[in-house]
Specification:
Distance between the termini: 67 Å
Oligomer: single chain
Low-confidence stretches: none
CATH class: Mainly Alpha
Number of helices: 22
Length: about 450
C-alpha cells in the first residue's frame, strides 16, 4: 500500500509541476494575447458590469438564475480552505514573492475563466426540467464534435468529485473535532444541510450562495482587515517584500527557511491556479444557468470570480501574514496552515480562532454544495436526469464516509484525476478561441451591448 501511495504521489507531483503550470499559465497568456488583452483594456467597464451590478435586480435575456447567483455559485466552489490556509503555505515555501506570481496568474487566468464561461453560454441547452445547462462537455461535443473527449471529461469529473467531497468533508470534520464534535456527527449534520440545498437544484443553490458567499467572505475579510489596519504601518514594507522577492531570492529569517526565485514562481503560480480554478472547466457549469442577453456579459462575472477569490481574499490573507510578522516566528514553517488562526487568536483572543474555524466550515460546506451540483450535471450529460439524482445520493453518502476518514486510498488519486480533467478543457478552450474572439468583438462593437451601456453612463 505504501509503495502504491508513493508511486501515485510521484506521478501527481510531476504532473502538477512543470507540465500543468506550463499548460495553465501558457494557455492563459495565449488567450490573453488572442483576446487583445481585453481584461486590462476594459477593466473599468468590467468592474462596473459586475461589482457595480451586485445589488441590481435588472436581468436581460434567458436563463434560470440571476448573473450574480451564477457567479456566487461558482465562487462557492473556488472560495475555500486554500484562501485561508493555502496562502501562508505558499509564503512559507515560496517566500513573499510567491504572492506576486499569484497575482500574475490571476490576471492571465481571468482570460481562461472568461473564455470557458463564454463558451459555456454559447453552447448551453435546456434539460428535461426546462433549466439551462452547459459546460465543457457541451462545448467539446457541439463546438468541436469531440464526443469521445466530452464523455471522458464528464465521466472523469463525475468520478473525481467523490474523493474531492471526501477530502472537503474530512477537513470540516477535523475543524469540528477541535471543538469536541465527533466526525460521524459532523458528517451526518453536513450531509443533511447540503442535501436540503442541492435537492432544490441550481435555483436553490443560487438563492443560498448569493447570501452565504458574501456573508462568509465578509466575516473573514472584516476580521482580517481590522488586523491589517492595526498593522497599517507595515503594509508598504509587505508590498516591497512581495515585489522584491518575486525576482530576488528571499533569505532565511526566524521561522522562514528562505526561498529561491524558482520556488516563489512555482508556489505562487500553483496557488493562483488551484485557488481560482481558471481553466479547470468547473465554473461554466454554474454560469451556463445565468439569465443574460449575451455570453460575453456573463463572461465578465468569471473575471469577477478571479478578482474576488485571488486578488481580494488571497491577498488579504497574504497581508495578514506579512504585516503581523508571524511568518518570521520560530517554527512558522512547521505550522504554516495554522498561521491565520494564530494571528486571529492573538488579536481577538479565543473567539479569533473560532472566527477562522467558522469561516473555514462555511467555505468548505459551500464548496461541497456546488461540486455536488457539478457532479450531477456530468451524470445528467452522460446518463440522463434520473441517473443524476442517483449520483446526488452517492455524493451525499461520500460526505459521511469522508468525514470519518474512510476510503483514504481514493484521496491520493485526486490530483491525477483533476489533471485528466483540466488537460482536455484547456485544449478545448484554446481550440474554440475564435468563437470567443468573434463574440467579444460583437459585444464591444454592437450598438446593443457595450456601446449602449456606455451611452447610458455618459
Amino acid at each position: 500500500m505504501e509503495k502504491l501511495l508513493d508511486i501515485v504521489g510521484k506521478i501527481s507531483g510531476w504532473i502538477w509541476g512543470t507540465p500543468m503550470l506550463v499548460l495553465l499559465v501558457g494557455g492563459g497568456l495565449f488567450l490573453t494575447i488572442s483576446l487583445g488583452f481585453f481584461q486590462f483594456r476594459y477593466f473599468g467597464y468590467i468592474i462596473k458590469q459586475t461589482f457595480g451590478k451586485i445589488l441590481s435586480k435588472e436581468t436581460r435575456g434567458e436563463g434560470t438564475v440571476t448573473p450574480f447567483q451564477a457567479a456566487t455559485s461558482a465562487l462557492a466552489s473556488t472560495v475555500g480552505a486554500s484562501n485561508i490556509v493555502g496562502v501562508p503555505v505558499a509564503i512559507m515555501f515560496g517566500g513573499p514573492g510567491a504572492i506576486f506570481w499569484m497575482w500574475v496568474i490571476a490576471l492571465l487566468g481571468s482570460a481562461s475563466k472568461f473564455t470557458e464561461v463564454v463558451l459555456g453560454l454559447k453552447y448551453r441547452e435546456k434539460n428535461e426540467e426546462g433549466e439551462w445547462v452547459g459546460g465543457p462537455m457541451y462545448y467539446m461535443e457541439k463546438g468541436l464534435n469531440w464526443r469521445p473527449v466530452s464523455i471522458l471529461f464528464a465521466f472523469g469529473l463525475m468520478i473525481e468529485l467523490v474523493p474531492s467531497i471526501m477530502v472537503q468533508a474530512n477537513s470540516v470534520a477535523g475543524s469540528a473535532q477541535d471543538m469536541g464534535i465527533s466526525p460521524l456527527i459532523t458528517g451526518i449534520i453536513v450531509c443533511i444541510l447540503v442535501g436540503l440545498v442541492v435537492v432544490g437544484g441550481i435555483k436553490r443553490i443560487g438563492a443560498v450562495t448569493e447570501k452565504l458567499v458574501p456573508f462568509m467572505a465578509g466575516l473573514y475579510l472584516i476580521g482580517a482587515g481590522i488586523i491589517i489596519l492595526i498593522n497599517i504601518a507595515n503594509v508598504p514594507a509587505a508590498f516591497a517584500l512581495i515585489f522584491k522577492h518575486a525576482f530576488q531570492p528571499a533569505a532565511a529569517v526566524g521561522g522562514f527557511t528562505g526561498a529561491a526565485v524558482a520556488q516563489a514562481l512555482r508556489w505562487g503560480v500553483a496557488r493562483g491556479c488551484y485557488s481560482n480554478e481558471a481553466g479547470m472547466g468547473t465554473a461554466p457549469m454554474a454560469h451556463s444557468a445565468a439569465i443574460t442577453d449575451h455570453p460575453v456579459r456573463q463572461g465578465f462575472w468569471g473575471i469577477f470570480e478571479v478578482i474576488v477569490d485571488t486578488l481580494v481574499i488571497c491577498t488579504t490573507t497574504a497581508l495578514l501574514i506579512l504585516t503581523t510578522g508571524i511568518w518570521k516566528v520560530e517554527g512558522a514553517s512547521q505550522t504554516a496552515n495554522a498561521l491565520p488562526s494564530m494571528v486571529f487568536t492573538k488579536v481577538y483572543g479565543p473567539i479569533g480562532g473560532s472566527i477562522v474555524t467558522f469561516s473555514l466550515l462555511c467555505f468548505v460546506v459551500s464548496t461541497i454544495i456546488v461540486i455536488i451540483f457539478y457532479g450531477e450535471k456530468q451524470a445528467e450529460f452522460l446518463f440522463g436526469l434520473k441517473f443524476s439524482k442517483f449520483m446526488r445520493y452517492v455524493y451525499l453518502a461520500s460526505i459521511v464516509i469522508g468525514a470519518v476518514g474512510g476510503a483514504k486510498l481514493l484521496w491520493s488519486f485526486l490530483d491525477i484525476l483533476l489533471a485528466l480533467i483540466i488537460v482536455p478543457n484547456m485544449i478545448s478552450i484554446i481550440a474554440l478561441r475564435k468563437d470567443v474572439i468573434e463574440l467579444t468583438r460583437e459585444f464591444f462593437t454592437s450598438d446593443l451591448y457595450y456601446k449602449k451601456d456606455i451611452s447610458k453612463s455618459v
